[in-house]
Write a structure and sequence with these properties.
Blueprint (H helix, E strand, L loop, with lengths): L1 H38 L24 E3 L18 H7 L9 E3 L8 E5 L5 E5 L2 E5 L7 E8 L8 E8 L6 E8 L4 E10 L2 E7 L2 E11 L6 E15 L2 E6 L1
Antiparallel strand pairs: 1-12, 2-3, 3-4, 4-5, 6-7, 7-8, 8-9, 10-11, 11-12, 12-13
């Protein structure tokens, strides 16, 4: 009986030793893992991927306004307008009097650019001479004008848009007046039943479709730029439109 108790105690002691060994082994392995992790270089935190940015909206072109000239500030020399007797009889000389002219002169231009309210006839006034702009009769006449040097001769020129015709036959074209040569060229292309305007952009001259709002009381008007169509080029006195 005592022998059995002795054997039982011995077996329990062996079991405890085995369990203790397993526990010590587990603790040793855990300590090793912790030491290895502490010695391992830390990875940098992941940089979050930036959200895609939206394409910036183009800077809107401000509306352009043209006002009627003060009668006291401008008196046209009727005899220099190049009007025939038939035109004066038909339209009436009073329609070419002071107060019947819109000022479209670009800032910095050495002359003047004018358009008649009643008839639409438009002129460059330079060194006392009047040069007719555009082509055709009727219509709105000059719509817009900007100062430029389109042919690169270091002389000021004018780019302008001009509307002629009536109702469904109305058309707007781009014109170029060479101030050095005193010559006028009108584009072969145009747009029907709509208006065009010019905007200088980093040395280039862009053509825009535009809407036109008229002050019924005075005849003054403003232009609102909408769609960009392309850029104007000149070669050998001919105008070209480079579509965008």
């Amino acid at each position: 009986m005592e022998q059995k108790k002795s054997n039982g105690k011995k077996g329990l002691r062996v079991l405890l030793l085995v369990l203790g060994g397993i526990l010590l082994l587990g603790l040793a392995m855990g300590a090793t893992v912790l030491i290895q992790q502490s010695l391992r270089p830390k990875r940098p935190a992941a940089t979050p991927t930036p959200e895609p940015t939206a394409t910036p909206e183009p800077t809107p072109i401000p509306d352009r306004r043209y006002d009627v000239l003060d009668p006291s500030a401008f008196t046209p020399e009727t005899e220099k307008l190049g009007l025939t007797e038939a035109e004066l009889d038909y339209y009436g000389e009073e329609n070419f009097a002071p107060g019947m002219w819109i000022d479209l002169t670009p800032e910095g231009f050495s002359g003047a650019v004018i358009r008649n309210i009643a008839v639409g006839y438009s002129y460059v006034v330079l060194d006392g001479a009047y040069y007719r702009l555009g082509e055709g009769d009727d219509g709105k006449g000059l719509i817009d004008a900007v100062l430029c040097d389109l042919n690169g001769d270091d002389e000021e020129d004018l780019l302008y848009t001009y509307h002629f015709g009536t109702k469904e036959d109305g058309e707007t074209k781009v014109g170029w007046f060479d101030c050095a040569e005193k010559t006028n060229a009108v584009s072969s292309f145009g747009i029907r039943n709509d208006y065009l305007a010019i905007c200088e952009e980093n040395g280039a001259y862009a053509v825009y479709r535009c809407s036109r709002a008229v002050d019924a009381a005075s005849g003054a008007f403003s232009l609102h730029f909408t769609d960009r169509i392309g850029e104007m080029l000149e070669q050998g006195g001919t105008l070209y439109l480079m579509l965008q």
